[in-house]
Design a protein that fits this description.
about 110 residues; mainly beta; Jelly Rolls; 6-stranded antiparallel sheet; 4-stranded antiparallel sheet; 1 helix; about 55% strand; globular
């Protein structure tokens, strides 16, 4: 198991995520056989182009606003909201404002 978090140590996810203009930053917090937990920071207007993944992925918005497109359907999310992106379904993300998100990739089925 790989982790950049210390066990039993409280962290503020918003403080860990970096945002810089015109960029996307990511930081893997946990990675093991069951999945990954990755923290992202997106500058306004940045995003991830349409792609699919072989596993379900949960997106939780920590701050800001984002458009999450799943199978050509747009969903606007803001701080505190989450959405499940199903395995093998095309999806994309776009930063409406600067935003930070937690992505939990769930490898088990």
């Amino acid at each position: 198991m790989s982790s950049s978090l210390l066990p039993s140590h409280v962290v503020d996810l918003a403080d860990l995520a970096e945002i810089a203009p015109d960029s996307v930053h990511s930081r893997t917090l946990v990675s093991n056989d069951s999945g990954t937990v990755t923290l992202f920071g997106f500058g306004r207007g940045q995003g991830l182009s349409t792609h699919s993944a072989p596993f379900d992925a949960l997106v939780q918005i920590i701050s800001g606003q984002a458009r999450v497109t799943i199978d050509d359907q747009d969903h606007e999310l803001r701080s505190g909201q989450a959405i499940l992106m199903p395995a093998d379904i095309p999806h994309a993300l776009h930063a409406i404002t600067d935003f930070k998100m937690l992505l939990v990739m769930i490898k088990g089925r």
